[in-house]
Amino acid sequence: MRNLLGLIIATFCLMWIPAQAQTAKQVKAAKQVKAAKQVKAAKQVKAAKQVKAAKQVKAVKPSKTAQAPKAGKIFRDCPTCPEMVVIPSGSFDMGSPGSEAGRDDDEGPVHRVNVAAFALGKTEVTRGQFAAFVKKTKYSTGDKCWTHQGGKVEERTGNWLAPGYAQDDKHPVACINWNDAKAYAKWLSRTTGKKYRLPTEAEWEYAARSNTSTARYWGDKPEEACAYANVADKTAQAQIPGASSWSAHKCMDGFDYTAPAGSFKANAFGLKDMLGNVWEWTEDSYHDSYNDAPADSSAWQGDGAKRVLRGGSWNNDPRNVRAAVRNSYKPELRYSFYGFRLARKLP
Q1: CA nearest 212: which of 165, 266, 160?
Q2: What's the pTM value of the predicted model, to 2 decimals?
Q3: Which pLDDT tens digit goes with each residue over 218-250?
Q4: CA atoms within a 13 Å half-sphere pointing along the CA-CB vector of 191
Q5: Cα gap 165→257, rounded to integer Å
Q6: Could you give the CA distance from residue 93 to residue 248 in angstroms, rounded to a whole number?
């Protein structure tokens, strides 16, 4: 009986030992599988992080290429924004030489100016573009404007919607003062997230000349103006009451008052109407000479009593339609031949 009991115990032991060994193996194997899964999971997490990091790097790449667009490029920041042209950096002689016909004393001394690249409106701001601003902001320009009627320029009831002659939304906006132009630039900057502003006087002349040194960007001959600009001409003399005695260009441009923006040939920078159509406000205060003027094309500020306008208009004679000619007026006054175009910081 004792032998039988011993045999049973021995048999049980023999069976239990292998089972325990098998269980230990299974536990070890399970641990190995778990460890392998953990390693795999860790690799997957690392790979996911690398993919995410790569995407982030890729997303940042465009900022590296957010450089100023090439000179001559035309762009528009919104559907109702003015078309802009990239103006290249460079340097030029600002002012006019003493030998230039029609020259005024405030156009000198001629001095060298360095200009950084910027963007400038391809044309003057149009009535339609200004209307979008007024509609959105409820901005008011008042109801008084100096207009031309019966051969006289007087302050009358009028504004950019009624400048004293017929216009549509494609024409340059007129009856605009310096403050109106600044308000439009501020609104457009806020709307687009870009920095719009009035051009400085130096930027304006540099862009108007477009690497020329003649009195006008098409040359020195005023009689060739009608292919490039809307000016006082035979058309104006024939169609505007009181204009028959005007000193005018000896050609016909086909328009009595303003012409639709961009109706004439562009200059070498691709800009249109830099001369004629409407005078254009600039950022600068007026100084009666260029003594001590900035050499870096920045705005030359003063007391602000008068601001500079450039380019001449539809009612100007050859003397006042030149790249160097300067006009100045109080920033609060509106005339039916005053408008503006905008500059924009790059990129």
Answers
A1: 266
A2: 0.81
A3: 999 999 999 999 999 999 999 999 999 999 999
A4: 18
A5: 7
A6: 28
Q: CA-to-CA distance for 302 and 294, rounded, in angstroms?
A: 12
The first and second tokens of residue 287, run together, are: 């100084």
Residues in the chain: 347
42 belongs to a structural domain: no
What are the tokens at 232? 């006082």
Question: In whole angstroms, what is the distance from residue 327 CA to residue 281 CA?
Answer: 9
DSSP string, 154-203: EEEE-BTTBSSS---TTSBP-S--HHHHHHHHHHHHHHHSS-EEPPPHHH
> Do the domain assignments include residue 272?
yes
Residues paired with 93 in a beta bridge: 112
pLDDT in tens, 76-122: 999 999 999 999 999 999 999 999 999 999 999 999 999 999 999 99
Q: Is residue 284 part of a domain?
A: yes
| Residue at 207: amino acid letter | A
- At residue 330, φ and ψ (nearest 5 deg) are -65, 140
Tell me the backbone φ, ψ of residue 142, rounded to 5 degrees.
80, -170
* CA 160 distance to own-chain centroid: 22
Tokens of 318: 């050859």
Instruction: Report if residue 211 sits inside a domain.
Output: yes
Helices (H), 193-256: 201-209, 234-239
Do 266 and 72 contact (CB within 8 A), yes or no? no
Asked if residue 302 lies in contact with residue 290, where contact means CB atoms within 8 angstroms, the answer is no
Structural domain span for residue 95: 74-344
- Tell me the residue type at 299: A
Number of structural domains the chain divides into = 1
What CATH number should be reported for the domain holding residue 296?
3.90.1580.10
**Helices (DSSP H) in 65-90: which residue ranges?**
none
Strands (E), 40-176: 74-75, 84-87, 90-94, 111-115, 118-121, 144-149, 152-157
Distance CA(94)–CA(22), nearest Å, equals 98
Cα–Cα distance between 167 and 29 in angstroms, integer?
A: 89
Could you give phi then psi for residue 338, rounded to 5 degrees? -110, 130
